[in-house]
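So, can you check this one?
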Amino acid sequence: MGTGIKTMLPCEKACHDKLGKSVVAKVKISRGTVLTLDMLTVKVTEPMGVAAEDIFQLVGKTVKEDMEEDDSVLPEVVEGYCKKRKC
């Protein structure tokens, strides 16, 4: 039954905004580094950064600023990252 497509219901949005997972740095990353999957992980974090489901879009992109371990990966810190797959 149903469409098989998962969508977020309006009543789930507040919880997702507070507890949704996003990509964080697994290790310290220096400015100018090209990201690899082993440098990244997914956690519940503040501030919310790149969505967990977009982690593979970050691989091969360059970091514009130094990042510490457990820092949220924010879209504006990654050169060439396109939010919501709209490039």
Remarks:
- The mean pLDDT is 89.
